[in-house]
Amino acid sequence: QQAKLDIQNVINSKFGPEYFEGHVFAKKSKNAQEAHEAIRPTHMKVENAGHTDEQKKLYSLIWQRTLATQMRDALIMRTKVTAKPSPLETDSQGEGLADFPDFWLNGSRILFDGWTKADPSAQGEDVILPTLNTGDKLNLEKIHSEEKQTEPPPRYSEAGLIKELEKRGIGRPSTYASIIKTVVDRGYVEKQSKALVPTDVGEVVSGFLEENFGEYISDTFTAEMEDELDDIALGKRTYVKTLTDFYGPFSKEVKSKEKLAKATDLGAAPKEFRCPICGGDMIVKLGRGGRFLSCERFPDCTGALTIDGHEIKADAPIGNNPESGLPIYLKTGRFGPYVQEGEDDKEKKIKARKASVPKTKDLGSVTLADALTYLTLPRKLGKHPETGEEITASVGRFGPYIVHQKDFRSLKVDDVYTISLSRALEILSEPKKQRDFARKSK
Contact, 74 vs 113, CB < 8 A? Predict the structure, then answer.
């Protein structure tokens, strides 16, 4: 009450008593506790506060919105003005020689600015029209034409998605941040400017769920489940029975779908792309390397194209290892290009040897000799003279390194494929540099 009295005094002195109208707002969420007051300035007479520009803008926003909550509604008249052009020439009967279309404009007339007086930015970009009367004559000052096309609805932003979730009764304020974080972290959407744009993975997952679990991802199911959980919190429903009623049918549904094929289908490909083997229709699929076009008859037909229409041929070896006689392939996987010796033997559970291709290497110039060099990793350099334990050189997630008894040292200058035992011992004898977080924790 004290804060509302302070607000009233500021409104009366700054804008006039006709702008004040006390309000008490009911809670939006029916089960929200809302035990805290809204954020507001402690001294309403202080209009500007903060040291940095961001702090000043934030304080100004809070101050304006706080005042606006206790002010009268703005009265705005939505208006459409239609202007009938007069013909430039007339015939002998006074009829117009040219048939001009009517010109019209939608806009608003502010009858009383109300709370927008405290928060002018809330008026948006609406066209404010002057006071006009039927029959008023307008003079044409200039005219120009431009072509416009209907634009699709904009993508959801984080704020827009949360607003939609609120409207549909999905989630709670405490869960909105985790919902956004989940869809971003799992790669279902990408942030482009402020928009959340679905990725190929997101479209595949969404399509799979809609096709196989449509009931459980519908708005009605989610909202009803929220209501049931609210009833549990209010003591109107027991949680054991509620969860049993849900989980029984749901677990059976999941089990019945366990043998479904892996979801990779992104829909039909454009008709101009035909299978390079059988000439049939193609479909867009999602693989480890991204989107590609696959024959609709797969696995009976193995025809495939890149997303821009180039044929994807079966891997041809770049040569054979002279020692083992096994073919060497150059491939691309989730973590980039790599070389592989032979094939995986699934029956014997033996995996083929693989080694990453350096990021600086041009894939078109990778030779058999290069591939054999890459496959030498991990290299055993020799045993440490003091411990008798092996020193190994290899390439990991953070680049090339040597390791001895779990003592990892990154190689900044030395070549991982040629580094010697003596050089490795020299690096290991140097004091290990601590990372920033280790220094800060100390």
Answer: yes
Tell me which H or E stretch contains 294.
Answer: strand 290-295
Which of 83-112 are b and which e, b meaning 16 or more Cβ less than 10 Å from the residue's Cβ?
Answer: eeeeeeeeeeeeeeeeeeeeeeeeeeeeee
Model confidence pLDDT, tens digit, residues 99-116: 678 888 888 888 898 998
CA–CA gap between residue 269 and residue 293 (Å, rounded)? 7
CB atoms within 10 A of CB 232: 15
Q: How far is CA 243 from CA 175, 231, 248, 294, in A?
A: 20, 13, 8, 42
Task: Name which of 144, 149, 131, 147 is nearest 103 in CA terms.
Answer: 144
- Which residue, among 241, 3, 202, 14, has the nearest Cα to 115 in the 3D structure? 14
pLDDT in tens, 289-331: 667 888 888 878 888 887 777 776 666 788 888 888 888 888 7
Does the pTM of the predicted model rise above 0.90? no
Q: How confident is the model at residue 220 (pLDDT cuts 50, 70, 90)?
A: confident
Q: How far is residue 411's CA from residue 236's CA, in Å, rounded to a whole number?
A: 64
Element (DSSP H or E) covering residue 207 = helix 200-212
**Helix H or strand E encompassing 414:** none
